[in-house]
Amino acid sequence: MELMIVVLIIGVVYTIAVSKIRSPERKKMTPSFKNLKSYLQSFSTERADIAFVCPKSSETCFIEIDGKKTAKVKSFFDDSVEIFRYDYFQGFLQKNSHDFFRFGIDKDGVTDQVAIRYKKNVYDYIDYFDAPKVYDSLSALRDAKEALVQKVQQ
Known about the structure:
Strand content: 25-35%
Number of strands: 9
Distance between the termini: 81 Å
Shape: elongated
Oligomer: single chain
Number of helices: 3
Order of helices and strands: HHEEEEEEEEEH
Radius of gyration: 23 Å
């Protein structure tokens, strides 16, 4: 009889404890160029190719996971955004992105190697794993890259 009471009490406590446990919810985060990488990573807990895709002149963007559209997101920029690729010998080369904006992270957590100029800031996504750095201009970013090359060569 005492054993049944103990089992009953344990069952009730277990039921109450399990019902109060919630699955982890994704943090509410507003996307911006400063947090775009961490924002994208919040959409998937497993290794996947994740991209933020916006058709130009559209107020609605979407999140793409392994090539499938999964969520709609309100755009946080206008058509004045410019995307550049950095080449040591040629400097910054503008990427043709007339139809859409796309920024992605591959399965290994490596972002697209680009610099994004929007309004008065340039966001440096050229480093593989670090958070983006913000510069006042492309020339300031170029100077930082050249200083890094000089430091490595010494």
